[in-house]
Specification:
The complex is a heterodimer of chains A (113) and B (229).
Chain A: H1 2-25, H2 31-49, H3 52-62, H4 68-106
Helix pairs in contact in A: 1-2
Chain B: E1 2-9, H1 16-21, E2 32-40, H2 46-53, E3 56-60, H3 66-79, E4 84-87, H4 99-107, E5 113-117, H5 127-144, E6 156-159, H6 160-165, H7 175-185, E7 190-194, H8 201-206, H9 211-226
Parallel strand pairs in B: 1-2, 1-4, 2-3, 5-7
Antiparallel strand pairs in B: 4-6, 5-6
Chain lengths: 113, 229
């Protein structure tokens, strides 16, 4: 099961990196964003292969030991926070697009009578 | 009274011309009639057909949804200083002869919103649609607290007073129920008049699906909970 999860994580990382590279080549994405997503997903793939890196890091930083439950809990909080931010942003953008489309829609309408 | 007939349309190129041609040119108690088609990002020739036969065409460059098209129609009606708005579906299911009795309660200052109800004479309506409409009426009552025998009817008359008072946010088909909720919130007088529906294979295929009811219910709940007013 753990091996399958690791393989999925690596496949997902490869997919995202190839997509961001393709977008960069087509000038849809900047070099900065391409480098950011590549490094981020390389890091995610590395953590998937060697999850103990987190325990080592936390122990070194604070002399505390955290269990896997705590680790998953912290990860959930961060992921949900990011999801919430993305949702809010997407919702706001959708509202703005809607307002623009509706305003453009009636801009040529005037009272002829 | 200046009347504006608004017709939200999405991919109705085949029938929009005949719907527009069938509209009345004169009505009792109405000084002028203006037609506005809201082309909601159609991929077919709806826009060009509407341009030929309607007085105005409001064009959404992308598809936003039926509710958004209705809001644009209301804004257009306000822009052309209408006293009264009639909404019709673009698929030809509404009989334009019913417009006169639909606007009568508003012309006589007896109502602010009039709903053309298909449910008082649902003969010819597919059984599944009859059930779906009653289910939507109950959902509307539970979510927005307003009642009508046909909350999903697309044939309505709205007074200028109601247009100015209502605050609509729904972009999908949930707008039908939202208007009923707004009528209650703004203490507007709501009436119903029975209308005949023209069921063709085309209009039957164009109606809302039963599956969409779940989507509408969820959105109405969201509107209710978020209190977007």
């Amino acid at each position: 099961m753990i091996i399958i999860t690791k393989i999925i994580a690596i496949l997902l990382a490869l997919m995202v990196i190839s997509k961001t590279f393709s977008d960069y080549k087509k000038h849809r994405e900047s070099l900065t964003m391409f480098l950011f997503w590549t490094l981020a997903w390389l890091f995610i793939a590395y953590v998937a292969l060697r999850p103990t890196i987190f325990y080592t890091f936390v122990t070194k930083m604070s002399d505390e030991h955290i269990g896997s439950g705590t680790f998953v809990g912290i990860a959930f909080i961060f992921l949900f926070f990011i999801t919430y931010r993305v949702y809010i942003k997407a919702n706001r953008l959708e509202q703005q697009i809607r307002d623009i489309v509706m305003k453009i829609g009636i801009k040529d309408i005037d009272d002829k009578n | 009274m200046k009347l504006t007939i608004i017709i939200p349309a999405y991919n109705e190129g085949k029938v929009i011309a005949s719907v527009l041609k069938s509209l009345p040119k004169k009505l009792k108690g109405v000084s002028s009639i203006t037609t506005v088609v809201i082309n909601d990002g159609s991929a077919d020739n709806t826009y060009s057909e509407a341009k030929k036969h309607a007085d105005h065409v409001a064009h959404h460059v992308v598809n936003l949804g039926a509710g958004a098209a209705v809001i644009t129609g209301f804004q257009a009606a306000k822009k052309i200083n209408s006293d009264l708005v009639v909404m019709l579906d673009a698929d030809g299911q509404h009989n334009p002869k019913n417009i006169e009795k639909l606007i009568e309660p508003i012309v006589q200052h007896k109502a602010d919103i009039v709903i053309g109800t298909r449910m008082l004479n649902s003969k010819g309506m597919p059984k599944v649609k009859v059930f779906g409409n009653w289910a939507m009426n109950v959902m509307t009552l539970l979510t927005v607290g307003g009642w009508s025998t046909d909350t999903q009817s697309g044939m309505r008359a709205i007074s200028r007073k109601a247009l100015d008072k209502m605050q609509l946010h729904a972009v999908g088909f949930e707008y039908c129920s939202e208007i009923i909720g707004e009528a209650k919130r703004c203490k507007l007088k709501l009436k119903e008049v029975p209308i005949q529906t023209i069921y063709t294979e085309y209009s039957k295929a164009k109606g809302q699906s039963i599956v969409n009811a779940v989507n509408i219910f969820t959105k109405l709940l969201t509107i209710r909970i978020s209190g977007k007013k």
